[in-house]
Amino acid sequence: MKLADNKATLSFSDGKPSIDLPMYQGTVGPDVIDIRKLYGQTGMFTYDPGFLSTASCQSAITYIDGDKGELLYRGYPIEQLATNCDFMETCHLLLYGNLPDAAGKEDFTKRVTNHTMVNEQMQFFLRGFRRDAHPMAIMTGLVGALSAFYHDSTDINNPQHREISALRLIAKMPTLVAMAYKYSMGQPYMYPKNNLSYAGNFMHMMFATPCEEYVVNPVIERAMDRIFVLHADHEQNASTSTVRLCGSSGTNPFAAIAAGVACLWGPAHGGANEACLNMLEDIQKTGGIAKVGEFMEQVKDKNSGVKLMGFGHRVYKNYDPRAKLMQETCKEVLAALGLENDPLFKLAMALEKIALEDDYFVSRKLYPNVDFYSGIVQRAIGIPVNMFTGVFALARTVGWIAQLNEMISDPEYKIGRPRQLFTGSVKRDVLPISQR
Ligand code: CMC
Question: How confident is the model at residue 290 (pLDDT cuts 50, 70, 90)?
Fold first, then answer.
């Protein structure tokens, strides 16, 4: 980061002396005002719940221009990555900063696939869960449990440990998600097949059985891979910030990623794909397209508590570029599977059309986000609705780990420790119980 030529001056209306605050410039995007010395100089904190105006770190990984609807991984537009590169190349890019050449890709893929199996003991750990447990509950447990199985890569301050835990996490997430699915189905786990692509292997572990081979349909394999690429990283979102904050205490990478999985589960974040599909199914059950107008009235009524899931974003005030690509994939998959007339897709298109023309959404700059179409694609592929967020977690793992490793290597990194504006009781004495 580069010191800007100008400074910000903070003045107070009560005559306290004003102070100058340094400013920094990134390569692109808004400048930042450095308030690190503010408390020392004034005895005051800044107040920004929800981080609406706060850059929590410097990062060189992902850039979003929310007004333009632009998303770049290491400078490359998501549209180019989604059409020219696969997930392994994207992982390499996010982790190391550059797109690999053919030999580099082969080497990286080999290093990942070396780690696709999980410790055999893991299946006994899994057995402790109820069969009807939510897959994200299972995933939070399984990812956290990796630190109990891989003791040789838990030192976050050791670059070799960070490297091996990164490869392990990327390699083992599909295995764990598929195991959570098989467990819920009561089917035997399928071991990974390293001659398949990353996406193809995931489909195999999900849908093959020991008595029947799963032949991967290339359209579905490409769609799955695209879902992974589109979800791979997204700057300092809630789960990534959770991973950074958790990791800032020096905890091991598996524990930090487990914290990210837990955060992602919420319906305002990664859980939106599941919530969106449930919403579409509910509308479909109660009358389908004919009821869309009525549903939209509920969404616009602030007292109803109903939201149009898969719409709106803290950063994008324009069409989420991932949603455009996902809609394209959705059409491709539905056509390949002969589901062009899928009623939920038609319903989603009808909702989108109304929302893009309705003043409520237009004035608030609410557009479809990635979750609006990803659920329809996953459902068409045969992934059950409650597994959608697990698939998101699988894909986001590389982003989390790249961001975590970036933080640990940053000389300015400190344990995250926000402060507060205290509004509780001032000091008081405890009365004997008989007098309270
Ligand atoms: N449906 C109806 N109204 C909405 C929606 C929605 N989906 N999203 C935002 N609004 C309204 C909101 O009520 C507020 O209205 P007003 O100004 O009258 O109070 C205004 O738009 C601004 O919204 P906000 O809640 O201040 O925005 P935020 O940045 O705090 O929240 C969000 C962003 C993504 C949590 C929110 O848009 C939302 O809950 N969307 C639905 C859930 C969803 O699709 N989440 C996935 C996000 S993308 C993938 C990911 O991050 O995992």
Answer: confident
